[in-house]
Amino acid sequence: MKTIRTLAAVAVATLGVLAAGAAHAVTYQYTSGSYNIYALGGYSSAGYITGTFEVPTALAANLTLNTNLVGYITSFSFSDGLQTITSSTPGAFVQYFNGFKTDTLGNITTWNVDVRVSGPYGDSFIYSSYPSSYGLHGGCLSATSFCSSEARGADSGGYWVLVPEPAQLAFALPTLLLGVALRRRA
């Protein structure tokens, strides 16, 4: 009888963890390959793009190729080694956040991202698309003239991962400890 109560308590706690995680936004993180085509100005050929975007729920499995996420994104942040453009950067805007496609597990397999910030010499921007007719990633920093620093790479090494929600991790340990404590009592 004690074993059944123990299992029931652990099951209820686990469901609570899963329900809490389902109610939170999710973050996807991107890392590109290096700038293997060219790097001018302050960019380095060893440089690359990193970025994140947050959406209310995980992307569905089997999204079609032209899924547009512009209205779905709650925040973003991308860095190309010289500049960081976030959703809260003054003058920042999304040029493109479309072409998303996911596999049967909801992993991002295709994308087209271009975030920009307006400036006195034109837009500075960070972009990545894969696979496309270009399959490129890069950055353009318009500090003293349009694209006074610029880098570009073939996006053969770029990938996205789903970042674990901190709230889910925070609930997982107490649930595990509760299960251990109840098991010892049984």
Low-pLDDT segments: 6-21
Cα-to-Cα separation, first versus last residue: 9 Å
In DSSP terms, counting alpha (H) and pi (I) runs of 4 or more, how many helices?
2
Number of beta strands: 11
- Based on CA atoms alone, the radius of gyration comes out at 21 Å
Based on the model shown, name its key terms.
186 residues; alpha+beta; 5-stranded antiparallel β-sheet; 6-stranded antiparallel β-sheet; 2 domains; single chain
Report on this model:
The protein is of the alpha+beta class and 186 residues long. It has two domains: 1-24 and 165-186; 25-164, no CATH class. Helix content is 22%, strand content 37%. It is built from two helices and eleven strands, in the order αβββββββββββα. It has helices spanning 2-22, 166-185, and strands at 26-31, 38-40, 50-55, 75-79, 84-86, 92-102, 108-117, 124-130, 136-141, 149-154, 159-163. It has a six-stranded antiparallel beta sheet with strand order 2-10-9-8-7-6, with no helix packed on it. A five-stranded antiparallel beta sheet has the order 5-4-3-1-11, with no helix packed on it. A hairpin with a 4-residue loop joins β4 and β5 (84-86). α1 (2-22) runs antiparallel to α2 (166-185). It starts with a helix and ends with a helix. The relative contact order is 0.22.
